[in-house]
Amino acid sequence: MASRAVMVAVLVAAVAATCARAQLHEKFYGESCPSVEDVVRKEMVRALSLAPSLAGPLLRMHFHDCFVRGCDGSVLLDSANKTAEKDAKPNQTLRGFNFVEKVKAAVEKACPDTVSCADILALMARDAVWLVSTTTILSKFANATSPYVWKLDSQCCSIMVFFQSKGPFWEVPLGRRDGSVSISNETNQLPPPTANFTVLTQLFAAKNLDSKDLVVLSAGHTIGTSHCFSFSDRLYNFTGRVNPTDIDHTLEPQYMAKLRNKCTSLNDNTTLVEMDPGSFRTFDLAYFKNVVKRRGLFHSDGALLTNAFTRAYVERHAGGGYKEEFFADFAASMIKMGNADVLTGSQGEIRKKCNVPNH
C-alpha cells in the first residue's frame, strides 16, 4: 500500500492543472487573510463538539452549492419571494445556514471584505469531514507539525487539545468569488436520490466529474441522516402501484423491514434515518460495506452496483483494506468538485453576509 505522503503527492499532481485553470490555489489568502483557515476551524471545532450531527449537512451543503451554478455560494442566498435555491424541494432539508453566517461573521471580523462565502463553505466541508474522522488527544507536550494534526490552545490551562486525523484531509484551493443569482428551478441539476446510474453519470459529467468521482463522492453518505421521503418509494411505491408488495427488491430484505418499521408510510415527512447505520457520525468505509450488502439507503446508492467499474470500486473498499487509498480518492474528488464552474478574478463579489448580495 502506498504511503500517505506518496498518495498526497499523487493527489496534488492530479488536480494541479485543473485548479490552475480556475485560478484557485491553496495560499490565495496568504497575505490578505492568513488566519482564515484557523478562524473557520476553531468555529467548526466548537460547533461539532456540541452538535456532531452537523457535519453531514455541511458537507451536503457544499455539494449542493457546487452542482448548481458552480461553487459560488448561491445555495446560501435568501429570496423574498421564496424562489432561491434553498427554497427548492431538494434543498428544503438542508440545515446549517445560521452556522455558516456565524463562521462568515468571524472571518469578516478577522479579515473584512476579503474571503468569499463560497470559499468558507468549501473550508467548512473539508473540516466537517476531517473533524468527524479524528481522535482527540490531550497532551502538555504534543507537537502539531503536519496537516493531519491540529492544535487548539486552551484559554485557561496548560493542557492543549490535539486532533489526530484518521480520515481524509486536503488543502482546499481558494479564490472563489460569490455569485448573486439563485434560482430554485435550477436545482434540477442536483443528482436525486431516486436516480439510476445513467442519470447520475449524466449529471456528474455536466460538472466534469466522472464515474470514479460518482462512486467516491457517494461515500459522503457515510455521515448524516435522511428524511424518509427521500427513499420511502423503495418501501411502498417503487413502481407506482402503492401497495405492500410494491417494493424495491434490490434492497436487502432485513434492511427493508427495519426501514419500514421506521418509515411507516409514504406520508412520513419528519422521521430521520441514519444513512450509515451504526457509524453515521464517523467518516469511514462502512458505506461501502452497506452498499455491497444491498443496504445502501437510496436508489442512487444501489445504482453503484449496476455498473462494472463502480461495483468493483465498492467491492474493493467494502473490505476496509484500502482505507488510505479511498481517503486520497475522496480528497481528489472533493477538490475536483470544488473547482466546478467557479467565479474568479473580477467575476462575482465577496459578500458581506452570505444570505444576501452586496447590492
UniProtKB/TrEMBL annotation:
Disulfide bridge partners, by residue number: 33-111, 66-71, 117-354, 228-263
Amino-acid positions noted as binding Ca(2+) 2 in the UniProt annotation, renumbered to this chain: 222, 276, 284
Residues forming the catalytic site: 64 (proton acceptor)
Primary site of residence: secreted
Enzyme superclass (EC): oxidoreductase
Residues that bind substrate: 191
Binding note for cofactor: Binds 2 calcium ions per subunit.
Cell location: Secreted
Binding site for Ca(2+) 1: 65, 68, 70, 72, 74, 85
Signal sequence annotation: 1-22
Function: Removal of H(2)O(2), oxidation of toxic reductants, biosynthesis and degradation of lignin, suberization, auxin catabolism, response to environmental stresses such as wounding, pathogen attack and oxidative stress. These functions might be dependent on each isozyme/isoform in each plant tissue.
Family, as annotated: Belongs to the peroxidase family. Ascorbate peroxidase subfamily. Belongs to the peroxidase family. Classical plant (class III) peroxidase subfamily.
Protein name: Peroxidase
Organism: Triticum aestivum (Wheat)
Gene expressing this chain: LOC123138504
